[in-house]
Amino acid sequence: MDTDPVNVTDALASFDDVYSPRIVARVNDYDVRIAHTRGEHIWHVHEDTDEFFLVLDGRFDVALRDADGVETTVVLHKGDTFVVPRGTEHKPSSPGGEILMFEPSGTSSTGDHHEGDLPAHVDSTTGHPLS
User: Fold this and answer.
1) pTM score, whole prediction
2) In angstroms, rounded to a whole number, what is the distance separating the alpha carbons of residues 35 and 16?
3) What is the mean pLDDT of residues 70-74?
4) In degrees rounded to 5, what are phi and psi of residue 107?
5) How does residue 3 score in pLDDT terms, banded at 50, 70 and 90?
6) Are 128 and 23 spatial neighbours (Cβ–Cβ below 8 Å)?
7) What's the whole-number mean pLDDT along residues 46-59?
8) What distance in Å separates the CA atoms of residue 94 and residue 72, rounded to the nearest whole number?
9) Burial of 30 (0-12, 13-18, 19+ CB in 10 A)
10) Which of 23, 92, 124, 127 fits as disulfide partner to 110, beta carbons 3.0 to 4.6 Å?
11) C-alpha distances in Å from residue 130, one per residue of 11, 24, 121
């Protein structure tokens, strides 16, 4: 068991990659991940898990697509939280910011399936250890 605290500000300063989450802690079977955000992510879905976001800095938008294909966008600012319900197609985007995510260990950052090719700036990962 790791008993050293993790300073989230220092952790974010230790890497520059966007949409490439780092695992800062584990709680039961869940990862606490942080990431830099800039630009568009991809449409994707997590069939069996909700996805929790906390905006640490900047702005973070989450476009949602319902079963009829109707899209809405939730705009989040520093200090805002939002949960994308399991099975909901979503596409994050950001003019620049930092987020904290809470999701089951092993959850892919690009979902169970996604739409289109992955852009070079989107890392399909289950989270990287914090260096």
Assistant:
1) 0.94
2) 9
3) 97
4) -70, 130
5) confident
6) yes
7) 97
8) 15
9) middle
10) 124
11) 7, 6, 19
Q: How confident is the model at residue 83 (pLDDT cuts 50, 70, 90)?
A: very high
Question: Which tokens in the block code for residue 68?
Answer: 């009829």
Please, is 84 exposed, middle or buried when counting C-beta atoms within 10 Å of its C-beta (0-12, 13-18, 19+)?
buried
| Mean pLDDT over the full length of the chain | 95
How much of the chain, in percent, has pLDDT values that exceed 70?
99
Neighbours of 23 (CB within 10 A): 19
List, as one string, the DSSP characters of the chain: ---S---HHHHHHT---BS--EEEEEETTEEEEEEEEEEE---EE-TT--EEEEEEEEEEEEEEE-TT--EEEEEEETT-EEEEPTT-EEEEEEEEEEEEEEEETT--TT-SEESSPPPTT----S-EE--
**What is d(CA 25, CA 92) in angstroms, rounded to the nearest whole number?**
23
Q: Output the pLDDT for position 1.
A: 56
